[in-house]
């Protein structure tokens, strides 16, 4: 079977921006900016994008493109044992896919609720009680929320039919799903900045508190945000790179991806802050009283702000949740495609629809855990452990493999041989020293926080069962899957 490639660089760039731009931009970034000195955080994020984001993204895309393989076999081509690192990245993705689609399911529900602002005045009750039927804690599983379950089915049907024909179907989808958010966000910006009170909100977002730049926490937050937001260390960008032709330019697309992702963050920030500024104004409260991060921002606070819009509230709601869905879906299917690419490298006799189908079925079943009444707690726990440890360790290993074992010039020379914009020697230093150093500090601080207080005050047994255990199982699963899928002749 002939290998399929992205039809052109722009489609690759759109698919990568689609993966990168997601909930991290829409609900994580605005809150981080609010917490860390507004414009000061924006500046720190820009620096972190340049110092960490660009080098690592170039590394991943370059590695995938050079080896023409997904994460497992691309790292395995550097040195055979390193394929386990690739599989581990993919099995962290595997965990994330299961719950990410549940968040998409919430979005599906809210998209349908948008047309008549069905959440009503009690937006918190609507989200936590009506939709999630939330229990009192992670040990109270209770039952399944039917609405979330149905939303999950819809989400999976959407993701399956996007990835089922691999590059071909993905290309057709991202033309729309990765461009429309820019257009819709622009419309929402016009709505947001013309609201009374918007200026005060925007001032919070843009005006830098310079002293915040001296706070190490700001830099760590910016660093992990770049990591998460650019979808690094999940094997995604390696897989997407492997679908590029071997002689195609790497550095220019990487710059477009980083810039596009940053622009989505800033646009989201303007929409969120402008609208919340208006809400604070209408309620006569301070912005600090209404702002929140994470699910509450999109599903509780923002709907409340939408209720208060003087006109076109329904239209703004549909546009907002439409953007939410487009952004989240592109990220969701990129995770699935990362896994599918490595399986397809191995299971050459299997049709790609089959590979995607089985991934969807297994992940769907796993995801049911997160549709239970305790779902949001469990989701929070798994997410915390995978993002704080899994990703950081994989990023660290990637940098060490390319920077120390393989020697960075090997990859840099290849990247430069196909790119018009050359990577200077600074890239070697970034990969060898800067990235590993920052990631080690991040890892150390995360472990320290963990030992000081149980995450979010959850019962320790829940943290062990849903946070620590899956992380420990990943290396074992990686090993088993590698053994099972390696062709006998190659063993
Ligand atoms: N980059 C995505 C975001 O910002 C999150 C994500 C990371 C999604 C990794 C998939 C894989 O929302």
List the helices and strands and how they pair.
Blueprint: H1 9-20, H2 23-35, H3 39-67, H4 71-78, H5 83-114, H6 123-131, H7 146-163, H8 167-177, H9 180-193, H10 198-206, H11 216-229, H12 236-242, H13 251-283, H14 287-290, H15 295-307, H16 313-346, H17 352-367, H18 375-405, H19 408-418, H20 426-452, H21 460-485
Helix pairs in contact: 1-8, 1-12, 1-13, 1-16, 2-11, 2-13, 3-4, 3-11, 3-12, 3-13, 3-19, 3-20, 4-5, 5-7, 5-16, 5-17, 5-18, 5-21, 6-15, 7-16, 7-17, 9-13, 9-16, 10-13, 12-16, 13-15, 16-17, 18-20, 18-21
Bound molecules: phenylalanine.
Phenylalanine binds next to α2, α11 and α16.
Name its key features.
single chain, 491 residues, mainly alpha, 21 helices, 76% helix, globular, binds phenylalanine
Structural class by SSE content:
mainly alpha
**Could you report the average pLDDT, rounded to the nearest whole number?**
94
Count of DSSP helices? 21
Report the radius of gyration as a whole number of Å.
Answer: 22 Å
Strands, total number: 0
**Helix/strand order:** HHHHHHHHHHHHHHHHHHHHH
Largest sheet: none
Give helix % range: over 70%
Ends distance: 23 Å
Unreliable runs, pLDDT <50, ≥5 residues?
none
How would you describe this protein?
- This protein has 491 residues and is mainly alpha-helical.
- Helices cover 76% and strands 0% of the residues.
- The protein contains 21 helices and no strands.
- The longest helix has 34 residues.
- The radius of gyration is 22 Å and the shape is globular.
- The mean pLDDT is 94.
- The site of phenylalanine has 13 residues, from helix 2, helix 11 and helix 16.
């Amino acid at each position: 079977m002939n290998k399929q490639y992205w039809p052109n660089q722009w489609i690759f760039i759109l698919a990568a921006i689609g993966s990168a731009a997601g909930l991290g931009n829409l609900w994580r970034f605005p809150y981080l900016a609010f917490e860390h000195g507004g414009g000061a955080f924006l500046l720190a994020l820009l620096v972190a994008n340049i110092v960490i984001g660009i080098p690592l993204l170039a590394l991943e895309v370059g590695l995938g493109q050079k080896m023409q393989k997904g994460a497992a076999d691309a790292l395995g081509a550097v040195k055979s044992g390193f394929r386990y690192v690739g599989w581990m990245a993919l099995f962290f993705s595997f965990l994330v896919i299961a719950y990410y689609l549940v968040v998409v399911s919430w979005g599906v529900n809210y998209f349908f609720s948008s047309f008549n602002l069905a959440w009503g005045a009690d937006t918190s009750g609507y989200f936590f009680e009506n939709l999630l039927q939330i229990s009192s804690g992670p040990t109270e599983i209770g039952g399944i929320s039917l609405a979330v379950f149905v939303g999950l089915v819809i989400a999976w049907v959407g993701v399956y039919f996007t990835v089922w024909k691999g590059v071909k179907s993905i290309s057709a989808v991202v033309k729309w799903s990765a461009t429309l958010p820019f257009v819709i966000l622009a419309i929402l910006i016009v709505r947001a900045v013309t609201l009374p009170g918007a200026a005060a909100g925007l001032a919070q977002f843009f005006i830098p508190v310079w002293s915040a730049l001296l706070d190490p926490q700001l830099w760590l937050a910016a660093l992990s945000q770049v990591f998460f937001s650019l979808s690094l260390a999940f094997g995604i960008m390696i897989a997407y790179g492997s679908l590029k032709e071997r002689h195609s330019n790497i550095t220019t697309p990487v710059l477009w991806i980083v810039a596009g992702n940053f622009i989505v963050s800033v646009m989201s920030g303007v929409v969120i802050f402008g609208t919340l500024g208006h809400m604070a104004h209408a309620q006569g409260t301070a912005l600090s009283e209404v702002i929140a991060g994470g699910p509450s921002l999109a599903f509780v606070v923002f709907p409340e702000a939408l209720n208060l819009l003087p006109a076109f509230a329904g239209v703004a709601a549909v546009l907002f949740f439409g953007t939410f869905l487009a952004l989240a879906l592109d990220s969701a299917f990129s995770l699935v495609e990362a896994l599918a690419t490595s399986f397809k490298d191995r299971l050459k006799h299997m049709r790609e629809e089959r590979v995607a189908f089985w991934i969807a079925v297994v992940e769907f079943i796993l995801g049911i855990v997160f549709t239970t009444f305790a779902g949001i707690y469990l989701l929070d726990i798994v997410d915390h452990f995978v993002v704080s440890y899994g990703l950081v360790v994989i990023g660290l290993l990637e940098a060490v493999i390319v920077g120390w074992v393989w020697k960075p010039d090997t990859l840099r020379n290849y990247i430069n041989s196909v790119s018009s914009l050359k990577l200077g020697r600074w890239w070697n230093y970034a990969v060898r020293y800067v990235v590993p150093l920052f990631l080690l500090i991040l890892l150390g601080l995360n472990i320290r926080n963990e030992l000081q207080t149980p995450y979010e005050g959850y019962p320790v047994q829940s943290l062990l069962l849903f946070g620590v255990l899956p992380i420990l199982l990943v290396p074992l699963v990686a090993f088993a899957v590698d053994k099972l899928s390696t062709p006998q002749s190659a063993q």
